[in-house]
Amino acid sequence: xxxxxxxxxxxxxxxxxxxxxxxxxxxxxxxxxxxxxxxxxxxxxxxxxxxxxxxxxxxxxxxxxxxxxxxxxxxxxxxxxxxxxxxxxxxxxxxxxxxxxxxxxxxxxxxxxxxxxxxxxxxxxxxxxxxxxxxxxxxxxxxxxxxxxxxxxxxxxxxxxxxxxxxxxxxxxxxxxxxxxxxxxxxxxxxxxxxxxxxxxxxxxxxxxxxxxxxxxxxxx
Length: 221
Hints:
With 221 residues, the protein is of the alpha+beta class.
């Protein structure tokens, strides 16, 4: 890791599009600080100061770079720390699995912004029955407990996000028919860096009224 100042993540005090960035930083063992967005004036200043290339958060300040777009940020981190595979083929497989995890996660981003019952109803009908069997099969066939190869990659971090979200909202019952995903969850959350992060203050809680109202106040008022 660089000896420069600790990376700084600019985002709301919630999960949202920054959750995957926080998890990737943690998995890489990169200590970071949060610059929390709580007022509209902050966002306006960040924009006027040229910090946000596309005028939106999240933004990660790291290695003298100001990186935006969640996918680009986590790929930079994964590439930097060797979590994108050891061959072109592995990298392609990791990217396929990671993008699939983003599609899966998209069922839950709107939680709190619309009725949670509707979110979970849609996810139960379309998301869980589609994606859980695919990822369970992928973990089983790979044989190491991870999605690709024999060690943690960005694909695993990507999958862990919806798995944790499912456990938050549905409980362990949701994974009862997917033994490989149960083992995957146990394996990845037991890794020292991930375990420390998940038990610590930088792991945000699920969307609540405070988070939702702050986002609406800043972005939509």
